[in-house]
Amino acid sequence: MRILVVEDDPDLARQLEAALGDAGYAVDLAADGEEGHFLGDTEPYDAVILDLGLPVIDGLTVLERWRRAGRGMPVLRLTARGRWSEKVTGFDAGADDYVTKPFQMEEVLARLRALIRRAAGHASSEISCGPLTLDTSRGRVALDGAPVKLTAQEFRLLSYLIHHQDQVVSRTELTEHLYSQDFDRDSNTIEVFVGRVRKKIGGDLIETVRGLGYRLVAVEEKAPKARGRKKMARMRPKSRLRPKSLAVRLVLGAGLWIAAALAAGGYLLSALFTDSVERGFDSRLNVLIEAFVAVSEVGPDNTLRLTQTPPSSRFRQPFSGWYWQIADANGPVLRSRSLWDQALETREAGGAGEGTAPFEITGPGKRTIRVLQRTISLPGSDQSYIYTIAGDIAAMDADIAAFNAALSWSLAALGLVLVIAVFVQVRYGLRPLARIEAALGAIRSGSAHRLEGEFPTEINPLAMEINALLEQNAAVLKRARTHVGNLAHALKTPLAVLGNEAAGAEGPLAETAARQAAVMQRQIDHHLSRARTAAARNVLGARTEVMPAAESLLRTLERIHAERRLDIALDIGPGAAFGGERQDLEEMLGNLMDNACKWAKAKVRVGATVKDGLLRLSVEDDGPGLAKEARQAMLNPGERLDESVPGAGLGLAIVRDIADLYGGAIALEDSDLGGLRAALTLPAANGPAGAKGA
After folding, report:
1. Which of 52, 71, 375, 380 shows the greatest Cβ crowding within 10 Å of its Cβ?
2. CB 505: neighbour CB atoms within 10 A?
3. Which one is predicted more confidently, 461 or 522?
4. Rounded to whole angstroms, how far apart are CA atoms 342 and 388?
5. pLDDT higher than 70, residue 693
6. What is the mean pLDDT of residues 475-487?
7. How far apart are CA 225 and CA 216, in angstroms?
8. Which helix (H) or strand (E) holds 50?
9. pTM of whole model > 0.85?
10. Residue 669: its H or E element
11. Contacts from 399-403 at CB under 8 Å and sequence distance 24+?
């Protein structure tokens, strides 16, 4: 873990540096607010210890500037002010915790450990990953409960990985967080320590993600190989209707409302139709009762008789389902032949002229019949008669069922049409978002630099904000390059003066000065190259065609090595483009081509292809080659196996560093030309250069 201490008191700063170093942290010191602000704004720290009473810029202002710039590292305040109003001010400015002077060093270390744990999402001082447990407060590691002995540097590496478990951590990130600013960093050292830790905790816990870095995972949760993930990503359909998408939400929401509305409407229509059919059936029964009343008369002997027989044959067919009955207080007086020897149920109907509400009963033949009754007083009679008409409801139920079936199919078809209409409307309405997606893809691939075109009123503010962000990103990159250039000028001019003075003098002192000036020169070139690339590696829209860059390098090298008359051939595949800055591609490819030209006998071959989203560059020569055991050493800064060939020994190291910052890799292999082949893998630019957003 890498800590920044911003403290103007040299004795206190020295004490903090010693205590943190003993606790296993890499420490950078800043003596004033300006230096502290610069380091915190440009370097990746896991936590910051910040004094508030600083010269040049006070600590509170430094903290506010960090937070406004989006720097989210945990900050522990050191302050001599203990009033609550000042504590609140500090927390509102973005501090995560505070320690009031005078303090015990153990308290600072404990609070610092807690801040780092919380930032990584861990509440306890014991952090587990599968069978592995790391105790940050005691500095102990256990595997399945058994203690594991680690060196201080191995503990730092494992601690950083376990704080970021299930995340891919690049070698560059590990290097930046495990070593202080003044340390001469070398990513190969990280590989060595990772190998050692793997041997002690088992190789399954630390996973190598090819071209990206390392990831600490629990054994049972180990992810599939990166190649498999890429293949799955390529096989995944590109439908816009993905889960959690706006289109899915809108279509599903509209579909649910349509289904609910159609269901309610269907229920209402069915109920209305059923009521209408039943009222029609009841009206028919009522007409029949009135017809029977019209043909009824009471004779002189007070006997009820019908003057006319009902014309419907269903009343004469036994158990036909249609029945009539006339009853007095003693029971049925007259009834239809269809009843045969059975009688219909009678219910209290009130006084004369009144009737019962229609009701349903099980009639003869176990059929469900609908019954209507009315109490009638006939002229010439001193008693009332109950007229009953009943009809089979099977036909009525069949009509209702047929209507409900037709209604269901109609509403289902209507619902489907409405859902399709909503889908079309949503797709049409979201087309501007698809245009933005295509435009962003063009920016990412480098074929465009901003969102162009007209957008709807609701989306136009988003497009404006994206364009503003892109412009700000470009401005930050420009400032970073300017600062790096100024720094190079400020450092290299005095070095040139020292080198010239040493070259003009004699004696041990002059030799020492010249040697150290050369070392400083190499380190400046090495780290300035890394700084410039680090500032540019995540720029959106970075795209460099390989062929133009290779051709310009070819022309330059042909002039540099003109006396050797080398045959330099370019075999660049169509569409080969680098997903980064042209200066970085030229830096890497130029170093490789120059190195090949220095060692080649007659031929140099440069190739480039794109496969699986990766740009694969190769530079080969027909020179003497390089022994396998010496190849890895050649990637280290300042390493040279033959002093007779001009150079500073930085070329391959710079190539490796720049490639590493882009998530790429370099390998030295045997060439079929007879010499050495440098294989460089880098991210390819996305899409063709002429791609345009729809």
Report:
1. 52
2. 12
3. 461
4. 13
5. no
6. 66
7. 14
8. strand 47-51
9. no
10. strand 665-670
11. 399/277, 400/270, 400/273, 400/274, 400/277, 403/270, 403/273
